[in-house]
C-alpha cells in the first residue's frame, strides 16, 4: 500500500467514507434493533424462547463463521465487488426476514443476513484502508468507527419506534432503502482495490468447519434443556460440533494460507486480550439479550420505551471510549482493562434489581450508567491491546480475529446463559418465572465480567510489538462494533 490515495477532506474522500459508513452502519443498526424486537416477534409468531435464541444466533453464527473468509475474498477478487455483493445479499435477506410467516423462516433468513454481513463489513473497512492516503487513513478509520457508533446508538430508538408505529417487520424493511442508497453511492464513488499478493487459494474448508462446528455446539446448548442432554439429537450435535472445531484448528495449523493464522496466539498480549474479549463480550451479550425481554415482559415497557431506556449505555460509550483509549495509551492498558470489566460487572448486577414495579430512574438508569461506564473504560483499551501487540502489517487480520472472538463469545452466551439461569421455553410467557431466572442471569453475567477484569490484571503486560511471523496476513477484516487502534480512536 502506497502513500498515494484520497484526502479525507476531498469530495471524493467524503463520498468513500459515507458509502463505507452506511454499509457497516446498516449491519450495526440491524444488530441492535433485533434485540428490542424479540418479545414482540415471539408473541406475533407464537414461538418458543429457543427459537428467539436462534433468531439472534443464526445471524451471529454465519457472521462469525464467514467474516475472515469475506475479508480474504475481498482481497483476492476485489473489495468493492464483495462489498456490493454483501450489501445486495443483506438487503434481499432482510426482505425475506420482513415477510417471514414463521419463526423457522425468520431464522433461515437471519442466517442469510449473516452471510451478507460477513461479505460487507470486512470489506467496508478494507476499502477505507486501501483508498485513503497514509496521512489520512487513521482519521478516516476513526471517523468510520465513530459514525458507525452513532448508527449503533440510534438502533434501540429506531427499532422501538418502528415496532410501536408500524410492526417489527419494518426493522428489516428499513434496510432496503439503505441498501439502494449504498449501491448507488458505492457504484459511483468507491474505487476498486484488491491485494495483488493475496493467495489464489481461499481457505473455504476452514470456514465451513468453523460454521458447522459452532452450529453443532450452539444447537446442543440450546436444545439440551428441552430435549434432554442425553437425547440422540443433542449428543450427535455436540459430537459433530466439537469434532469440526478440532478439525478446524488442525486444518488451520496445516494450511499454507490459513484464514486464522494460529501463530498470532503465540503473542502473549494478543492471546490475553482475546481471552478477555471472549469472556467480556459473552457476559455483556448475554445480559443485553435478556434485558429487553425483562423490560417488556415483566416491567411492562413498550418496545420504544425499552429501546430508549438503553440509550445512555451507547451515549456513554460514544462520549468516553476515545478518552479511555488515550488514557490507556498514557498509563498502559492493564489498569483500564482490569477495572473496566469490574465496573461493568457491578452495573450488570445492579440490573438484577429490575422487576415488576420497577421505575426507570430508581432501578434501570443507575444500572445502565454504571454498566456503560465500565464498558467505556474497557472496549477501546481491549481492542487497542489486541492490535498493538502485532506488527502493523498484521493489524488487519488481528482486528478480524478479535472481532470474531467477540462474536463467538456472544454466540455461546446467548445459547448457554439461559441454561445456567434456568430459563426454559415455558418461562418465556411466565413473567414471574422469567424474572426470577433473569435475576440469576444478571449475577452470572456480572461475575463473568469481573472474572474478565481479574484475568486482564494477571495476563496483560506492557505493550510490546511482537516479531512473530504470521502466515499470509492478507485479510483486512473490520471490527464493526469497537474502535480499531488507539490512533484511530483519537482521530474519531
Architecture overview:
By secondary structure, the protein is mostly helical. The chain is 77% helix and 0% strand. The protein has helices at residues 11-44, 49-77, 79-98, 103-131, 134-165, 170-173, 175-189, 204-227, 232-254, 268-299, 303-309, 311-331, 334-351, 360-388, 395-421, 431-459, 486-491. The longest helix has 34 residues, at 11-44. The radius of gyration is 21 Å and the shape is globular.
Strand content: under 5%
Helix content: over 70%
The count of strands amounts to 0
| Count of DSSP H/I helices | 17
Write the element-wise H/E pattern from the N-terminal end onward: HHHHHHHHHHHHHHHHH
* Class derived from helix and strand content: mainly alpha
Rg of Cα set: 21 Å
Q: What number is the mean pLDDT? A: 87
The biggest beta sheet, please? Answer: none
The shape is globular
Rounded to the nearest angstrom, the distance between the terminal CA atoms is 22 Å
Q: Low-confidence parts lasting 5 or more residues at pLDDT below 50?
A: 465-492
Amino acid at each position: 500500500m502506497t502513500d498515494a490515495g484520497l484526502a479525507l477532506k476531498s469530495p471524493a474522500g467524503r463520498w468513500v467514507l459515507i458509502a463505507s459508513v452506511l454499509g457497516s452502519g446498516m449491519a450495526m443498526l440491524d444488530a441492535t434493533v433485533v434485540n428490542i424486537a424479540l418479545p414482540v416477534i415471539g408473541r406475533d409468531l407464537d414461538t418458543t424462547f429457543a427459537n428467539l435464541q436462534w433468531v439472534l444466533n443464526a445471524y451471529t453464527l454465519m457472521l462469525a463463521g464467514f467474516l475472515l473468509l469475506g475479508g480474504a475474498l475481498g482481497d483476492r477478487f476485489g473489495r468493492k465487488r464483495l462489498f456490493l455483493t454483501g450489501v445486495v445479499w443483506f438487503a434481499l435477506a432482510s426482505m425475506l426476514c420482513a415477510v417471514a410467516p414463521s419463526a423457522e423462516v425468520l431464522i433461515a433468513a437471519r442466517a442469510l443476513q449473516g452471510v451478507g454481513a460477513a461479505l460487507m463489513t470486512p470489506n467496508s473497512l478494507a476499502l477505507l484502508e486501501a483508498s485513503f492516503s497514509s496521512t489520512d487513513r487513521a482519521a478516516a478509520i476513526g471517523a468510520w468507527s465513530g459514525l458507525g457508533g452513532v448508527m449503533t446508538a440510534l438502533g434501540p430508538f429506531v427499532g422501538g419506534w418502528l415496532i410501536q408505529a408500524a410492526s417489527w417487520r419494518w426493522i428489516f424493511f428499513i434496510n432496503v432503502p439503505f441498501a439502494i442508497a449504498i449501491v448507488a453511492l458505492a457504484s459511483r464513488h468507491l474505487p476498486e482495490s484488491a491485494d495483488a499478493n493475496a493467495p489464489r487459494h481461499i481457505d473455504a474448508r476452514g470456514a465451513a468447519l468453523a460454521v458447522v462446528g459452532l452450529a453443532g455446539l450452539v444447537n446442543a446448548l440450546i436444545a439440551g434443556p428441552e430435549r434432554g442432554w442425553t437425547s440422540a439429537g443433542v449428543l450427535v450435535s455436540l459430537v459433530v460440533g466439537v469434532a469440526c472445531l478440532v478439525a478446524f484448528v488442525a486444518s488451520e495449523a496445516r494450511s499454507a494460507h490459513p484464514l486464522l493464522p494460529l501463530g498470532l496466539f503465540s503473542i502473549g498480549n494478543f492471546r490475553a486480550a482475546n481471552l478477555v474479549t471472549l469472556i467480556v463480550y459473552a457476559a455483556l451479550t448475554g445480559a443485553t439479550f435478556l434485558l429487553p425481554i425483562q423490560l417488556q415482559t415483566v416491567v411492562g415497557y413498550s418496545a420504544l420505551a425499552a429501546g430508549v431506556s438503553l440509550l445512555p449505555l451507547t451515549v456513554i460509550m460514544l462520549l468516553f471510549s476515545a478518552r479511555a483509549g488515550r488514557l490507556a495509551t498514557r498509563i498502559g492498558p492493564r489498569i483500564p482493562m482490569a477495572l473496566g470489566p469490574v465496573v461493568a460487572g457491578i452495573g450488570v448486577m445492579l440490573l438484577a434489581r429490575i422487576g415488576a414495579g420497577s421505575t426507570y430512574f430508581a432501578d434501570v438508569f443507575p444500572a445502565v450508567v454504571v454498566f456503560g461506564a465500565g464498558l467505556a473504560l474497557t472496549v477501546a483499551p481491549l481492542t487497542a491491546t489486541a492490535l498493538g501487540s502485532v506488527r502493523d502489517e498484521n493489524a488487519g487480520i488481528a482486528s478480524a480475529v478479535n472481532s470474531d472472538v467477540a462474536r463467538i463469545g456472544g454466540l455461546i452466551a446467548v445459547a448457554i446463559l439461559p441454561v445456567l439461569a434456568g430459563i426454559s421455553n415455558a418461562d418465556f410467557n411466565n413473567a414471574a418465572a422469567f424474572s426470577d431466572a433473569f435475576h440469576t442471569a444478571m449475577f452470572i453475567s456480572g461475575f463473568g465480567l469481573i472474572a474478565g477484569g481479574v484475568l486482564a490484571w494477571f495476563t496483560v503486560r506492557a505493550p510490546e510489538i511482537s516479531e512473530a511471523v504470521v502466515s499470509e496476513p492478507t485479510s483486512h477484516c473490520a471490527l464493526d462494533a469497537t474502535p480499531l487502534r488507539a490512533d484511530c480512536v483519537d482521530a474519531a
